[in-house]
Each structure stands twice: as structure tokens, then as C-alpha cells.
Design a protein that fits this description.
Number of domains: 1
Shape: globular
Helix content: 40-55%
Strand order of the largest sheet: 2-3-4-5-6-8
Largest sheet: 6 strands, parallel
Radius of gyration: 19 Å
Order of helices and strands: HHHEEHEHEHEHHEEHEEHHHEHHE
Structural class: alpha/beta
Bound molecules: S-adenosyl-L-homocysteine
CATH architecture: Alpha-Beta Barrel
Number of strands: 11
CATH class: Alpha Beta
Length: about 350
């Protein structure tokens, strides 16, 4: 194997310059060998198990205006919705019957759901489903709020850093958002005791080998429990509507690198990966991913949480989705399990 990849596998760390060199030379790397290695490493940690997370997209209101995102506040072409606590619980009931042991509550940054409202929803889910983990993905809040939600029973938090390069971060986000506060939120989450997920968009506009090297280097030092990456997909109502999408090959390449970097991380084969190629999620799993996040949102709102164009599974019934995935994953030699699937990396507290 390529000497830098060899080093990565042995020491799980590269210098920033080495990351950049590796990424600049990505076309020269034998992908079959890389994916085989990543798969072997994952089989040593999590075996052939694929964990499911039931995704509940409970609000598409957002106070932010991220230039890539279809639910940004300036998009006037989407119908906004919010789910009630009972509607959210109904999604969990459906998911629990289908064997899901993790529910992911995701939304835009919608402060209608204040600290207490979310705490109440978390408590109700944990009371009815004590065997399940609750993951939050609600964006940036203050540390006190993160602590309150943790005390209410939330187990995990997903907050992608999006890009670890300050200047690049500014090109993707409105002026009121900055990388420092994103990273501070990630530190707060970790210090609170959550299993924390971060990640970046592959092929986002203005991304370069140097910014990607910073992404990998940041992940190497932060050591998240979970890492979510997916290709950039333009959304037709955003300023980035005409930008080039990220590629399947690049996304698989980074999934595999992340698996070699953090053998014990939970890495999803994301919906965005399944959107750019019909077999994208299967290929993601073969390249080292071990999590799938099917949609549990009610059918009537699914086509409104449009972060990007042509998102898959906006019409499927949740049950069909589950059965279909079970078959697809079985065919490629892995096993979907009804387990919580906690990270092997210990939490801070
Ligand atoms: N408000 C929450 C959830 C954001 S949506 C938060 O701030 O964390 C989840 C993820 O979708 C984002 O973190 C972003 O990385 C991704 N995303 C948004 N728009 C996208 C696009 N056009 N293409 C690919 N990924 C996108």
C-alpha cells in the first residue's frame, strides 16, 4: 500500500502536510486495496454489523442561511412544518415496532423548540422506550442547553463541523456564523458527556486539498465517536444551485480514510451518498461505513425536508424502507442488527 496509508494504519495520525499530500495524490491510490483494508479494519471492530438510526426530521424552520442548504431561512419556495411531541412519539412507536433502537431528532435551527420543549420530548421518548438511544441534531445552542438535554436523557449529538478551514467556512455560511463557535459547541458537547458526531461535506464549493487536510486533521485530534460525511448536492433554491456536486469516488475515498484513522468510529453511509448513486450506500458500507439512517418522518412532511435536490426515500413507507435495506445489505454480506450500536470510543464523563 501507499506509504502514507501504511503510516495512517499503524499510527492513526498524520501531520497536516502529510494529509494534504495524501489527498493531492488521491487519484494515484489503488481504491480497491484501500476499500478492502477499510473493510477489514471495520470487521475487526464492529464485525459485519450495520446499525440503524431512525431519522425524524421534525422541523424544517431554520434561523440560519447556510449557502448550500435547502432549508435556509431565505428559501421562500418551501413549505415549512413543525411536528408536535405526539407526532414525534408516533414516529418512534412506528420505528420501535420495526426494531429501531436509536432515534435521531433532526431539524433546522428552530428556537421555537426551546430548552424545555426539547427536554420534555426527550424525557417522553426515554420513558416509553428505555431500551433506545436518543440522538440530537439541532445545531448550535449554549452549553447549559446541551447539559439540560443530556440530563433529560439524550445520549448522542450530531453537529458536523462542515469545514475546518476558517476562510472556507465563511464562504459557505452567512457572516453571523463562524467556525470558532461551531468548534466551541463541539467541545461543549463532548465535555457534557455525549457521544459526539461531526463531519464535513465532500466536494462543497471552494473546497481544496488544503481545506480537506484540515478536516482530517481536526477529526484526528477531536476524536469524535461518529463521523458523518456526504457529497455536496446542489439545491435549486440556494445560491449554490449551479455549483458542481461532490462525487461518489471522493466520498468513498474519505469514508475509507476515516475508517483507517478511527477504527472504532461509527460512520454512516449517508442519504446523500444514496442520492448521487443508486448503490451509493452499499458502496459506502463496503468502503468502511457501518451505520444507515433511514427516514422515519411522517410521509406527508418527508418531501419538505429538502436539504438538497432529488433526495431519496421521500415517498417510501418506513416499513418498506426497513425491509428493502435489510435485503440490500444482506446481499452484499453484512447484517442489519436491532441494537443501540453505541460507539466503542468511551465518552468523557
Ligand atoms: N441544523 C442542524 C442539522 C443540519 S442538516 C445542524 O446545524 O447541524 C444536516 C447536514 O446536512 C448538515 O450538517 C450539512 O452537512 C448537510 N447538508 C445540508 N445541505 C446540503 C447539501 N446541499 N448537500 C449535501 N449536504 C448538505
Amino acid at each position: 500500500m501507499e506509504p502514507l496509508l501504511d503510516r495512517l494504519q499503524k499510527s492513526h495520525a498524520l501531520s497536516l502536510d502529510e494529509w494534504e499530500a495524501l489527498i493531492r495524490n488521491k487519484e494515484k491510490i489503488d481504491r480497491e486495496v484501500l476499500y478492502r483494508e477499510a473493510d477489514r479494519v471495520r470487521r475487526k471492530t464492529y464485525g459485519d454489523k450495520i446499525f440503524l438510526r431512525g431519522l425524524i426530521e421534525f422541523s424544517n424552520y431554520c434561523k440560519n442561511d447556510c449557502l448550500y442548504c435547502g432549508i435556509r431561512r431565505s428559501n421562500e419556495n418551501i413549505e415549512r412544518y413543525r411536528l408536535s411531541k405526539n407526532e414525534i412519539l408516533n414516529c418512534c412507536r412506528l420505528g420501535h415496532n420495526l426494531g429501531y433502537k436509536t432515534f435521531v431528532l433532526q431539524s433546522g435551527e428552530d428556537f421555537y423548540y426551546d430548552t424545555d420543549k426539547i427536554s420534555d420530548i426527550i424525557r417522553s421518548i426515554k420513558k416509553e422506550f428505555p431500551d433506545c438511544a436518543v440522538t440530537l441534531s439541532l445545531g448550535e445552542r449554549d452549553k447549559k442547553t446541551y447539559e439540560a438535554w443530556f440530563d433529560a436523557g439524550a445520549d448522542r449529538y450530531l453537529l458536523r463541523h462542515e469545514t475546518a478551514d476558517k476562510a472556507h467556512y465563511r464562504k459557505l455560511h452567512p457572516p453571523e456564523l463562524g467556525l470558532d463557535s461551531r468548534l466551541k459547541a463541539l467541545e461543549d458537547l463532548k465535555a457534557t458527556g455525549y457521544q459526539v458526531g461531526t463531519g464535513f461535506i465532500v466536494g462543497s464549493p471552494y473546497q481544496e486539498a488544503s481545506t480537506l487536510a484540515k478536516d482530517l486533521y481536526f477529526i484526528q485530534s477531536f476524536r469524535p465517536h461518529m463521523i458523518g460525511i456526504g457529497p455536496f448536492i446542489p439545491q435549486s433554491d440556494t445560491p449554490f444551485r449551479n455549483k458542481e456536486p461532490g462525487t461518489l469516488e471522493d466520498t468513498l475515498f474519505f469514508v475509507a480514510l476515516l475508517r483507517l484513522l478511527l477504527p472504532e468510529a461509527l460512520i454512516p453511509a449517508t442519504t446523500a451518498l444514496g442520492t448521487i448513486h443508486p448503490l451509493g450506500r452499499e458502496m459506502g458500507i463496503k468502503a468502511g461505513a457501518n451505520v444507515l439512517m433511514p427516514n422515519l418522518s411522517p410521509g406527508e412532511v418527508r418531501d419538505k425536508y429538502l436539504l438538497y435536490d432529488n433526495k431519496i426515500c421521500t415517498g417510501d413507507e418506513a416499513a418498506e424502507c426497513r425491509n428493502c435495506l435489510e435485503n440490500r445489505i444482506g446481499k452484499i454480506g453484512y447484517k442489519i442488527v436491532n441494537e443501540r450500536g453505541d460507539s466503542l470510543i468511551p465518552t468523557t464523563v
